[in-house]
Automatic annotation (TrEMBL):
<comment type="similarity">
    <text>Belongs to the RUS1 family.</text>
</comment>
<dbReference type="GO" id="GO:0010224">
    <property type="term" value="P:response to UV-B"/>
</dbReference>
<protein>
    <recommendedName>
        <fullName>Protein root UVB sensitive/RUS domain-containing protein</fullName>
    </recommendedName>
</protein>
<dbReference type="GO" id="GO:0009941">
    <property type="term" value="C:chloroplast envelope"/>
</dbReference>
<dbReference type="InterPro" id="IPR054549">
    <property type="entry name" value="UVB_sens_RUS_dom"/>
</dbReference>
<dbReference type="GO" id="GO:0009926">
    <property type="term" value="P:auxin polar transport"/>
</dbReference>
<dbReference type="Pfam" id="PF04884">
    <property type="entry name" value="UVB_sens_prot"/>
</dbReference>
<feature type="domain" description="Protein root UVB sensitive/RUS">
    <location>
        <begin position="46"/>
        <end position="278"/>
    </location>
</feature>
<dbReference type="InterPro" id="IPR006968">
    <property type="entry name" value="RUS_fam"/>
</dbReference>
């Protein structure tokens, strides 16, 4: 050890011993931490299990990740396995439709070549939807796999109409191109939701390792299938949809397990709804299975039926702008209450906190029988009294309130 005069420069080490294993733990002065196994008499099966965890799971698992990561990983593995097997079936079908008679090995090799052409067009079109993917990464991840399976289905059934081979293959690759962009764009927000200790790179690397292993296993299964039960078109028409169902179910369960902690319209409305009903704040883990993957834009009555991102001239009458700014002074939101819903308009630099403030005002106002200027003012005053204690509680639950991802990109400067 270094001099105790400066505790920050000291190295610290200790040894932990159990019945079967002895480990030496060592803290360097610069903060680096290392572990060395001194003695290990565990059965070979236990050693192999630990080696597997170290290879395919982040360091410190399960304490270094948020809840749900194991379930996410299980279904991610199944998703990649079924997707890879489907790709072999579709490639062989495309080659048959083109008039070739490939072997299973040829089908696997050519699957890397048929990703060009129309696929690039699909990628370019989908790249314009990045803001929406930031707002709803789960929904777009599921949609990506639905598009991928639609493209794969077109390829599998292409031998049924050989004269339309080019159109079928082109449409299939177009859908796959969009799927590739959506899947890659949503990968980072999903991984970020599990990064508990700033270990995003470790999570990403281990996640890709698992994907690679199960892609290879899926390719092997696909080769076996096209050599046996899927050697005929009838076999492909039975096995293909079954693999697709497994694929879509896996990615849906994968996304439901992810505790995304950024604020978007759906999650903000759900937080406000739960707070007004119970007085408690839900965490990302609490809400993950309640989020709608198909209809994230649904209005929630108990949270004020708020719509975000409509054009200013559609949301608010120009004659009311000055009046609303007087009701909500120094705020970065404006509210316009209609018969069926409440429009919320945000300024360019509005954060998640600003969106929460506006949502609470809308919810309080909607709880009254009729909405007038007086009701809006009372709702605004009520929000201001609640927010100082509510905001720290929301942040303590793990929500990021420094930004609001509405997905539309329509903001205004007043």
């Amino acid at each position: 050890m270094k001099s105790p005069d400066n505790p920050l420069s000291m190295s610290v080490s200790w040894t932990e011993t159990s019945d079967t294993v002895s480990r030496h733990f060592f803290f360097q002065p610069d903060g680096q931490f290392s572990v060395k196994v001194l003695d290990d008499s565990r059965p070979i099966v236990h050693k192999m299990a630990e080696s597997f965890v170290n290879q395919f799971f982040p360091s410190g698992f399960p304490y270094s990740v948020n809840e749900g990561y194991l379930r996410y990983t299980q279904f991610r593995a199944l998703q990649h396995f079924s997707s890879a097997a489907l790709s072999v079936l579709s490639t062989q079908s495309l080659l048959y439709a083109a008039g070739l008679r490939p072997t299973p090995a040829q089908a696997t090799a050519v699957s890397w070549i048929l990703k060009d052409g129309m696929q690039h067009v699909g990628k370019l079109i989908c790249s314009n939807l990045g803001a929406r993917m930031d707002s709803e990464p789960k929904r777009w991840r599921v949609l990506a796999d639905v598009l991928y399976d639609l493209g794969t289905g077109l390829e599998i059934f292409s031998p049924l109409c050989p004269p339309l081979f080019l159109e079928t293959a082109g449409l299939g690759n177009f859908a796959k191109g969009m799927a590739v962009v959506a899947a890659r764009a949503t990968r980072l927000p999903i991984y970020s939701s599990f990064a508990k200790e700033g270990n995003l790179s470790d999570l990403f690397a281990k996640g890709e390792a698992i994907s690679t292993v199960f892609n290879v296993l899926g390719l092997g299964a696909g080769i076996q299938l096209v050599s046996t039960v899927c050697s005929s078109m009838q076999g492909k028409m039975i096995v293909g949809p079954m693999l697709s169902l497994i694929h879509i179910y896996s990615v849906s369960e994968e996304m439901r397990a992810a505790p995304v902690n950024t604020l978007n319209p759906q999650r903000t409305a759900m937080i406000v709804e739960e707070f007004l009903k119970t007085g408690k704040v839900s965490s990302p883990v609490d809400l993950r299975y309640k989020e709608s993957l198909l209809f994230p834009g649904r209005l929630i009555k108990d949270a004020g039926n708020v719509k975000v991102g409509r054009d200013l001239h559609k949301a608010i009458k120009p004659s009311r702008l000055k009046e609303l700014k007087e009701i909500f002074p120094n705020e970065k939101f404006l509210l316009s209450c209609g018969n069926s819903w409440t429009d919320m308009v945000l300024e360019h630099n509005a954060s998640g906190e600003d969106a929460l403030r506006g949502w609470l005002v809308a919810a309080y106002a909607r709880s009254e029988d009729s909405i007038s200027e007086r009701v809006l003012q009372e709702a605004y005053d009520k929000m201001k009294s609640v927010m100082p204690s509510l905001l720290p509680e929301i942040q303590a639950k793990g929500w990021h309130t420094d930004r609001f991802l509405d997905g539309k990109g329509i903001r205004f400067g007043f």
